[in-house]
C-alpha cells in the first residue's frame, strides 16, 4: 500500500516538474499547455473533456512563466481572465490581448519587448510589470490610464529623465512607479501645478465667492416688505384735508411702489444666484483646463 502511494506521488511530481526539466525547450501557447500549467493536476485525470473545456474557459488566472514562449497567442477565449503571468520568456511584442477586457494583473517581466503598446482594450488593468525588457519607447494611446502600479525598471527608457513625468501625466490613477510611491507634490509638479500657486489660486476664488455670498445675503434682507421706506400712514396724517379719492390713489401708488421694489429685489437676487452658478461652473472649467493643458503639453 505504501509503495502504491509512493508511486502515485512520484507521478504527480513528474507532471509538476516536466516543464522545468525541459527548461531549454520553447513552448507555444495553446489549450493543452494552459491546462497543464494553470489547472490543478490532481483533478485533470478525473475530468471529462467537457469538464476540462469548461474549467479552462472559466479560468481567472493563467500561469505561462519560464516557458521560453516567443509569441502571445491563443488567449482570445479567456474573457474572464484577470491575472496573467508571462514573465521570464522570450516575448518580443505585446499582442493578441484585445479580448482580455477583464485583465487586471499582467506580468511581462524579463522578456524581449522593445515597445510598450498593445493594451488599449485592457481598461481594467491595474498592475503591470514590464521590467527587465528592452523598452525604449511607449505608445501612450495604447496604455490604459487606469494602471495603479507600474514597474518599468531595468529598461533602456530609464535613461529618459522625463519618462516618470510623462507616465504621471498619462496615468491618472498611478500610485506607484518602480516600487516608489507617488506623492501629491510630485504629481502636481509633473502637471506643472505647484502647490503654492494652487493654494493662492484657490484662496482668490474663495474670496470672490465670499463677496458674492455677502451680496446675496444683503439682497435677501431687503426683500422684507416692512423695510421698504414708503411712509404711507405718515403722509395721510400730515394731510387731513385729502379727499377719499386722493387717499385711494395714495394706497394704489404705495402698493405699486412696493410691488416694484419687491420685483426689483427678486430680480437682483436671481441675478446673484445666476452669478454664483456661473462662478461654480467657471471654477470647475478652469481646474479642468489646467489639468488638460498640462497633459497635452507632456504628450507633445
UniProtKB/TrEMBL annotation:
It comes from Paramecium primaurelia. It holds the Pfam family LRR_4. This is Leucine rich repeat protein. The lineage of its organism: Eukaryota, Sar, Alveolata, Ciliophora, Intramacronucleata. It comes from the Eukaryota. The keyword Phosphoprotein does not apply. InterPro entries: Leu-rich_rpt, Leu-rich_rpt_4, LRC72. Keywords: Leucine-rich repeat, Repeat.
